[in-house]
Design a protein that fits this description.
- It is a single chain.
- With 246 residues, the protein is α+β, with helices and mostly antiparallel strands.
- Strands 1, 2, 3, 4, 5 and 6 form a six-stranded antiparallel beta sheet that branches.
- The relative contact order is 0.14.
């Protein structure tokens, strides 16, 4: 006579598989522009993560229910639920832990005292209603969280620094929307690879001492209160391109 299948094990397999499906769809649909980036992220992080946690709990109960001598089958389903639920939850936790040691701010600059200003974004119909003022409360948090970020001194004249900045923006895959060499101003958009979040980037080049240049960068997220360090990482990448140290 066949053994009855454990309902807990079957539920673990179903919920774990659903967690991966929902999380994967969140990424895919946002990546393809079917849903807004924040909607795709919510499906991945909140719905997928919650289902993954539930799947893990059910899997643990299912493994206990199908232990040797229990008289119930379905242990393979419990292991499947453990694997899928665990993968989904780990993916969410990895992203959360990546930003655990950085300040919960989303507007980062090399010069909090005099940050570059956004011009194109303020007149673009898609973003002109957004507030692009640099929040005064961010300066202290940024200095504590990202003490390495500072104006970038280059031993080249402003014209050459401008060309380097243009090249850096293109090399990093940004969409340059404003370019004014005479004023030393560049503005661009950076789109994240998975969910296609769009962040705004402003670069300003000024004359520096001894014929050199000083470059300031600002990177601001359009959504969310924190950025898990993405804007600071972007500024460091631009700085590395400017210095030729990539």
């Amino acid at each position: 006579m066949p053994q009855p299948t454990s309902r807990l094990a079957a539920a673990a397999a179903g919920v774990g598989g659903l967690a991966v499906l929902v999380g994967g769809l969140g990424v895919l649909l946002a990546n393809q522009g079917v849903v807004q980036p924040i909607q795709g992220f919510a499906a991945f992080a909140f719905v997928g993560g919650l289902l993954g946690a539930i799947g893990l709990i059910l899997a643990a109960l299912g493994l206990r229910a199908t232990r040797a001598g229990s008289g119930r089958s379905g242990r393979d389903r419990a292991w499947f639920g453990l694997a899928t639920g665990g993968v989904m939850l780990l993916a969410v936790l990895r992203g959360a832990l990546a930003g655990g040691n950085v300040p919960r701010i989303n507007d980062i600059t090399t010069n909090p005292d005099d940050p570059p200003q956004f011009e194109y974004a303020k007149r673009d119909p898609a973003t002109r209603d957004r507030d692009y003022a640099y929040p005064p409360g961010f300066a202290a948090q940024q200095r504590a969280g990202y003490p390495d970020l500072a104006p970038i001194a280059l031993p080249v004249p402003p014209d050459e620094a401008y060309e380097r900045a243009q090249a850096a923006a293109h090399a990093l895959g940004f969409d340059v929307v404003l370019s004014d060499k005479a004023r030393g101003v560049i503005e661009a958009r950076a789109t994240s690879s998975l969910f296609h979040f769009v962040d705004d980037v402003a670069i300003r080049i000024r004359p520096g001492p001894n014929g050199g240049s000083v470059v300031d960068i600002r990177s601001k997220s359009r959504v969310g209160k924190g950025d898990i360090g993405a804007n600071a990482k972007r500024i460091r990448a631009i700085a590395a391109e400017l210095r030729g140290t990539t």
